[in-house]
Amino acid sequence: MDTVLETVLPAHPYYPTTLALPHYVANTLTFQQALGVLGAAILVIGTGATVLLSRRPQLSACERIVFIWFLVSGSIHLFLEGYFVLNHRTLAGDQGILGQLWKEYSHSDSRYLSSDTFVLLMEAVTAIIDGPLCYLAAFAIYQNSPFRHVVQLSVSIAQLYGDLLYYTTTLFEGFPHCNPHPFYFWFYFVFMNAVWIVIPFSLAWQSGKYLTSAVARIQALESRKKAH
Questions:
Q1: How do residues 195-220 score in pLDDT, each as one tens digit?
Q2: Its pTM surpasses 0.85
Q3: Residue 191 DSSP symbol
């Protein structure tokens, strides 16, 4: 009887329950510990960013927040998401800290454990392109560079586009890869990803307005020159 049950019941806690993960190994970290590790890493990056910002007193409060956002976001893209891209085949059995973070998050989206083609390609683009662009945007803010808003607009649109595709691909399927528990669905899947919609949209809007205003000023100046 036990043998029959073992062949019927899933050997993992993910959805859909029919998902085959023969190399799955349960986490040794609790979800509180996993979230604590992620929070601690973000705190370290934020603290380092604050130290750097102490050398730039001329930056506004808004610029400082955006600088920290790009450093944190770039680090997540490059290191956490890059880790997934490099280790997606063995992630279900990975007992490293980053591997366990991904297994914890995968309660909200098991595609990360099954080497889903879309998720793999989307995360590869995010790690290779969005990550470095976030660092470049942070550098541009720090240096008060004239190319700041071009980079900020570019990376924000890339983040927004990728996240919308990520949401909609599973939305049209009826969320079969997500654990229906409210914590996993609303906090992990909806809230944690919505951050990369709300903030990039706001920053893209800010940069779009700035660049439009700059072009309008140049056009007005050229018109006055032609009039004379």
A1: 999 999 999 999 999 999 999 988 88
A2: yes
A3: I
List the structure tokens of 86: 């490099």
Per-residue tokens: 24 = 């799955």
> What pLDDT, on the 0 to 100 scale, is given for residue 223?
81
Q: Which residues contact 180 (CB under 8 A, 6 or more apart)?
A: 15
Q: Where are the domains of the chain?
A: 30-227
The residue whose two tokens read 């020159």 is: 225
* Residue 11: CB atoms within 10 Å: 11
Q: Which two tokens stand for residue 195?
A: 């951050």
Tokens describing residue 78: 């490059």
Chain CA centroid to CA 83, Å: 13
CA-to-CA dists, residue 105 to 2, 110, 138, 184, 228, angstroms: 30, 8, 27, 8, 63
Q: How far apart are CA 163 and CA 159, in angstroms?
A: 6
181: DSSP letter? S
In three-state secondary structure terms, 154 is helix
